[in-house]
Amino acid sequence: MIKKRIAVDMDEVMADSISRFQEWYGRDFQLELTLDTLRGKSPHEAVAPEHQPALRAYPNAEGFFRDLPVIADSQRVLQALSERYEIFVATAAMEFPNSFLDKYRWLEQHFPFISWRNFVFCGDKSILNADYLIDDNAYNFDNFRGEGLLFDAPHNAHDTRHRRVHNWQELGDILL
Amino acid sequence: MIKKRIAVDMDEVMADSISRFQEWYGRDFQLELTLDTLRGKSPHEAVAPEHQPALRAYPNAEGFFRDLPVIADSQRVLQALSERYEIFVATAAMEFPNSFLDKYRWLEQHFPFISWRNFVFCGDKSILNADYLIDDNAYNFDNFRGEGLLFDAPHNAHDTRHRRVHNWQELGDILL
């Protein structure tokens, strides 16, 4: 039997990059970046205009993607999914070239059951030949050939066009 | 009209990595690695057993992919193809994590008309959703959903299972 294939985004789906924004924003400006202020917005849109350039620059700074916390239940559910599906990790890393090695090592460390052969660092995700794409950015579904599953995140709170999944437990219920 | 999509491999198709093997082999062992000895073989298979570990290690060494010469006519023909097709660059960079930044910067420098959104660093190329794949490694065509075009290289000299193209001029004749 040919396994169906799931492509999984990294940031905000496997790796908690919002916590890094919160940490660095607190470090640099002594202010709190709450999940509430992030609703419907990118991190830089959620702060004062004079802080926006700093937040835009964070993802390209050394270490931003290093040691990010793992999103709850993603390891357990992806491990179970990998028995029934081919799992590819697909991250828009090309936007942040300094992130390449950190992202690679993070995946090796936290998801050792996914082969490096199944890592995809890309930009436009319409290049993915997969049956499902789990992603927190709805624009990645626009020309995707399979079915998009929108992983809940503060910034996509107002999107109503796609099937929303709230956490990995729910993804397991749907796909297993 | 929707443009068809071409995925293009980097090494030995856009970038001349054989010249780097020849250069470093000469530097380290004062021996010549001729194109003739490379027929039907990977570089490490073409040298004495005691030199094989060194050649296997080269692609993961600092600078291996930096400043590689551009394969003849690839810029001109890809520029012309990009008018009629969507062009994606798809390289199995995951095998050599230290190559990521060098490959990214090389593409930016030599192929500025291809957006970083269309760069794909991957392992298993069956993840590509494209109509054509131009590649020197026939195994990349095995589960590829489109048509493979085998770009002529010494190591693939004995492959007869795929349509062979000898150079970029010929690719232009076929695809334009």
Describe this structure in words.
2 copies of one chain form a homodimer. In chain A, 28% of the residues lie in helices and 15% in strands. Chain A has 176 residues and is an alpha/beta fold. Chain A folds into 2 domains: 122 residues, Rossmann fold (3-Layer(aba) Sandwich); 44 residues, no CATH class. In chain A, strands 3-2-1-4-5-6 form a 6-stranded parallel beta sheet. In chain A, strand 2, helix 4 and strand 3 form a beta-alpha-beta unit. At the A-B interface, helix 4 and strand 3 of A face helix 4 and strand 3 of B.
Strand order of the biggest β-sheet of chain A? 3-2-1-4-5-6
Largest interface chains and counts: A-B, 29 and 29 residues
* Portion of residues within helices of chain A: 25-40%
Largest sheet of chain A: 6 strands, parallel
Oligomer: homodimer
Q: Determine Rg of chain A (CA atoms, Å).
A: 16 Å
Q: What is the level 1 CATH name of the largest domain in chain A? A: Alpha Beta
Low-confidence stretches of chain A: none
- Report the CATH superfamily of the largest domain in chain A: HAD superfamily/HAD-like
Q: Class by helix and strand content of chain A?
A: alpha/beta
Number of strands of chain A: 6
Span from first to last CA of chain A?
A: 16 Å
CATH fold name of the largest domain in chain A = Rossmann fold
Strand content of chain A: 5-15%
**Please, how many domains of chain A?**
2
The gross shape of chain A turns out to be globular
